[in-house]
Design a protein that fits this description.
Elements (H helix, E strand, L loop, with lengths): L10 H17 L33 H6 L4 E4 L10 H7 L3 H9 L4 E4 L19 H16 L3 E5 L3 H4 L8 H18 L7 E4 L11 H20 L10 E4 L7 H14 L4 E7 L3 H5 L12 H16 L7 E6 L16 H17 L2 E7 L14 H9 L7 E2 L3 E5 L7 E6 L5 E6 L2 E2 L6 E4 L2 E4 L1 H8 L5 E10 L5 E8 L3 E2 L2 E4 L3 E6 L5 E8 L13 E2 L5 E4 L4 E4 L1 H5 L7 E7 L4 E9 L2 E6 L5 E4 L4 E3 L3 E9 L3 H4 L4 E8 L4 E8 L5 E8 L2 E7 L11 E10 L6 E13 L5 E4 L3 E7 L5 H16 L13 H17 L5 H20 L12 H9 L10 H4 L12 H15 L1
Parallel strand pairs: 1-2, 1-8, 2-3, 3-4, 4-5, 5-6, 6-7, 7-8, 10-17, 29-38
Antiparallel strand pairs: 9-11, 11-15, 12-13, 12-16, 14-15, 16-17, 18-20, 19-27, 20-24, 21-22, 21-25, 23-24, 25-26, 26-27, 28-30, 30-35, 31-34, 31-36, 32-35, 33-34, 36-37, 36-38
Helix pairs in contact: 7-8, 8-9, 11-12, 12-13, 17-18, 17-19, 18-19, 20-22
Length: 872
């Protein structure tokens, strides 16, 4: 794995190139490019020929990419389109700004460029690039090369403006693509080889399957390669950057790109992928409010690095992470850092180190929000610090950057676990003062202990909120910042509002919210998405610490059933929780703090292996004899994913508590418990049942959940009480075989054989079976392929499942309630007029009954006719 295939040196090509440039310079007097133009202005006339190229890097193409580390993206600038603000942003790119990027320690810059917008490209057949636009791009390229930076230019949002239409407009798209690269290659052919070309950003194609998309990408990459290599000058050896499909790190798409590169057989090719981290962590959904949650965020980083290394780097093809960041950065208006600042710091510390260790160069994506172009200051200095420190080694972190001291509790030693990562703590400061080791703090192995005496001084006469900022210093890497919070339990109040404007009055009292859970009190998950009860910040809720409010979004209430009470649980980073109930009636919303009630808990378990048997304890909390007497009966309903889990049985853990009946149906188990006699009631917190399960053998790591959706309790007098049910999320580790694929094929084959096309209720739209058969045959091809990889098997299952979902839509039952009714018509009407180009097509396509990649009158008519057929 550690062996490297050495690439041939560029010596002969370099010598030839340099001699050609010298001869040209001897025959012409160089002219400065628009010295009189204001810095940052668009140049209207042709600039002078590029200056003599800087020395071309010697060594292998891997050496070239190593020298690019770290990189920076000039994002949302020359790639931007669609607003009056675009020109203003582009004007911020001055020569001084480019020089500042180099002074900040970046070695390379990517200049994303959208060529087809705002008149930058002429009409067919020439597709002539506007000279002023070409000159402006060259100006920034030249500034960047003069600053000593490696430079990457590309076709950027052209990918979604016209290139993605290639399946239905093949010849015109290819002609425009070739015309643009012919012009770009010609303009820059005499530039230094520190300039590289990237064929296209995040390539994707509408309305075709994965295999066809990769076929089209291969065609574009190949055409790009031959155009550049035949264009003369330094382009015969210029490094060329080729992306995977959508520039993702999926093994199947990496394999496709690797085959393209092998076919081209060129020593100066670079593979590129993009990485914004593990999605649930990035947007704080499904309980992933910390970097360590289930270990999945780190595993995601490790997995990408391993796949890229084994597929490309170990075989002599370097990899550039052309865009690098974290999903939550664009969670505008969330009212909090997404991810939380300390958790994001751990993400950047780990990922930059892992990528450097695997010889992957990363290029930070900055959409103008990271580095201020007027002050030349970082809006988040920590991100920059961790990126730069990760080039040298590990930095130390901690379990959190927040330390909570509870109001009213006696001052006591506070223990914080450190992730030393091989380093040593050298001291702690609070502002300009240094803490005294031994009396203010001690270090016990990997634990930092803030002494009770020091804590007492911090909270003396303190107001709720931040009482100190501590800096932990280490012998290597970045300092870790602790924000010490003096806190009390958050308090919430009644509220009234609308589905577009509803805020829960919340005295945070020095605490910080980690996540929100939403379930219906009658059972089931409330709000989007419907696969996890733990909601995403920004999408479902926003925070306002300044006004002491938690705002529930319009998007959240769109997915809440009118009239059904929703139980919200707010989990704070101190460990505190609050319960709140809201009810939407039409457009009106009311809310109030929930009365303290009995809660259920499932014991902790983060992951199991496929095929493994395991157990979870079901417990009751907040059982109080003064309020409830004792619990003598329980009606428990638990929901689980039948595709990933099998319920085995349940055992009572309390003497005298007996299981009266148990019923297991599709994805649900209902258990009735009773306590015979007056002396066997439950009046204390504790475990009640042992639930035994078996994880199914799956071909991919699968995040699943076991959800206690309804619990009804009874006391001795038959008074009924509802308990709050909670979900337990766990990961099932994959089993690499074809068992699941074969089962899926058999399931879909049966569906195909029994399906009938026609206009009747339950019948499928004409042509739906043929489309399903294509996906079925593709899955069979993978199943019969003895060389199929685990990722190919997984992708085949996912693709087939997706095809089945679309197939069912063609019956007109777009809501999935096993019937065709007015609800289906309304859902289709909601998306009327949308096409595959719409930003929310992933949702809208689920009402595309006639499968024409648009929601139109045919879809409405088909559903309406089937409703009338039912009524007859």
């Amino acid at each position: 794995m550690k062996t490297r295939k050495k690439l041939l040196r560029f010596t002969k090509q370099i010598s030839t190139l340099c001699m050609s440039v010298l001869l040209l310079l001897m025959c012409a007097i160089p002219v400065a490019a628009n010295d009189s133009a204001p810095v940052g202005a668009v140049i209207s006339e042709s600039p002078a020929p590029a200056p003599a190229p800087a020395p071309v890097p010697t060594g292998t193409i891997q050496d070239y990419v190593d020298a690019m580390q770290p990189g920076y993206n000039l994002g949302n600038t020359f790639d931007a389109f669609g607003g009056d603000w675009v020109q203003e942003v582009q004007d911020t790119v001055t020569q001084d700004f480019i020089n500042e990027i180099a002074r900040q320690g970046f070695k390379s810059i990517r200049i994303p460029t959208t060529w087809e917008w705002g008149g930058h490209t002429g009409a067919a057949p020439d597709y002539t690039v506007d000279p002023a636009w070409m000159n402006r791009i060259q100006q920034v390229v030249d500034w960047s090369l003069d600053a000593g930076l490696y430079v990457m230019i590309n076709l950027h949002h052209d990918n979604i403006r016209w290139i993605n239409q290639m399946p239905t407009n093949h010849d015109a798209v290819l002609a425009q693509y070739n015309a643009l690269w012919t012009q770009i290659a010609d303009r820059f052919k005499n530039h230094s080889n520190k300039l590289m070309f990237e064929s296209v950003n995040e390539p994707q194609f509408v309305n075709v399957d994965n295999a066809k998309q990769n076929e089209l990408l291969d065609e574009l990459n190949t055409s790009f390669f031959h155009i550049v290599r035949a264009s003369g000058g330094a382009n015969d050896v210029r490094p060329l950057v080729l992306p995977t499909l959508v520039t993702n790190g999926v093994q199947l798409d990496m394999d496709y790109l690797a085959s393209t590169m092998a076919k081209l057989n060129d020593k100066n090719l670079i593979a590129t992928i993009h990485f914004y981290g593990f999605w649930p962590f990035g947007i704080n959904i499904a309980g992933y409010s910390t970097f360590e949650h289930n270990g999945d965020t780190a595993k995601d980083i490790d997995g990408l690095a391993a796949r890229a290394y084994n597929t490309f780097i170990a075989k002599g093809v370097p990899v550039v992470i052309g865009e690098f960041g974290v999903f939550g950065w664009d969670s505008w208006g969330a009212g909090d850092d997404v991810p939380e600042k300390g958790e994001a710091n751990k993400f950047f510390e780990y990922s930059t180190y892992v990528f450097k260790q695997n010889k992957m160069t990363h290029m930070l994506w900055d959409n103008t929000s990271r580095f201020d172009r007027s002050t030349y200051k970082w809006n988040d200095q920590d991100t920059y610090n961790y990126i730069m420190a990760g080039l040298e080694g590990r930095s130390s972190t901690a379990e959190s950057d927040l330390i909570f001291i509870k109001k009213g509790a006696p001052a006591q030693d506070t223990v914080i676990h450190l992730n030393l990562n091989g380093n040593n703590l050298t001291g702690i400061t609070a502002g300009n003062e240094s803490l005294t080791a031994g009396s203010d703090y001690v270090v016990n192995g990997n634990d930092l202990v803030l002494k009770a005496g020091f804590i007492a001084k911090l909270i003396q006469s303190a107001q709720l909120g931040e009482v100190a900022v501590l800096k932990a210093h280490f012998n290597k890497g970045v300092d870790w910042t602790f924000n010490v919070m003096y806190n009390d339990t958050p308090v919430q109040q009644n509220a009234e509002g609308s589905n577009t404007n509803f805020a829960i009055p919340t005295a945070f009292n020095g605490d910080r919210l980690a996540t929100m859970e939403a379930v219906y009190t009658k059972g089931g998950i409330a709000g989007p998405p419907n696969w996890t009860s733990y909601k995403a910040i920004a999408e479902s809720y926003k925070l306002s610490y300044a006004t002491n409010e938690i705002l529930l979004t319009e998007n959240f209430f769109k997915e809440v059933t009118s009239g059904d009470e929703v139980a919200l649980t707010f989990y704070f980073r101190s460990g505190a929780t609050t319960q709140y109930k809201v009810t939407k009636n039409g457009t009106s919303v009311t809310g109030a703090p929930a009365q303290k009630s009995v809660q259920t808990e499932l014991s902790s378990l983060s992951s199991v292996d496929g095929g493994q048997s395991f157990s979870l304890n079901y417990s009751l909390k907040n059982v109080s004899s003064s309020v409830y007497g004792a619990v003598y009966g329980q009606d428990i309903t638990i929901e689980f994913d039948k595709n990933s889990l099998e319920f085995v049985d349940a055992e009572s853990l309390i003497d005298g508590i007996q299981i009266a009946a148990m019923d297991v149906t599709e994805g649900k188990v209902r258990i009735l418990l009773f306590s015979p006699g007056l002396s066997t009631g439950i009046s204390e917190d504790g475990a009640v049942l042992k639930l035994n399960w078996k994880a199914k053998e799956l071909l991919n790591d699968t995040l699943t959940s076991i959800n206690v959706i309804r619990v009804q309790l009874s006391d001795m007098d038959s008074n009924l009480f509802d308990a709050t049910g909670l979900a337990k999320t766990l990961n099932i580790n994959k089993v690499s075989d074809k068992t699941a694929l074969r089962a899926k094929i058999a399931e879909v084959q049966q569906l195909y054989d029994q399906a009938v096309e026609g206009n009747g209720v339950g019948q499928y739209y004409s042509g739906a079976k043929a489309r399903l058969l294509v996906s079925l045959n593709a899955a069979k091809a993978v199943e019969s392929d003895p060389a199929a990889t685990t990722q190919q098997i997984t992708d085949a299952i996912v693709a087939l499942s997706d095809a089945v979902q679309i197939f069912h839509v063609t019956t007109g039952d777009v809501t999935g309630n096993q019937q065709v009714d007015i609800g289906d018509l309304v859902k289709a009407a909601k998306h009327y007029g949308k096409t595959s180009l719409s930003s929310d097509w992933s949702e809208a396509r689920l009402v595309d009954v006639d499968m024409d990649n648009s929601i139109g009158l045919t879809d409405i008519v088909v559903i309406a006719r089937k409703i009338l057929s039912v009524q007859k």
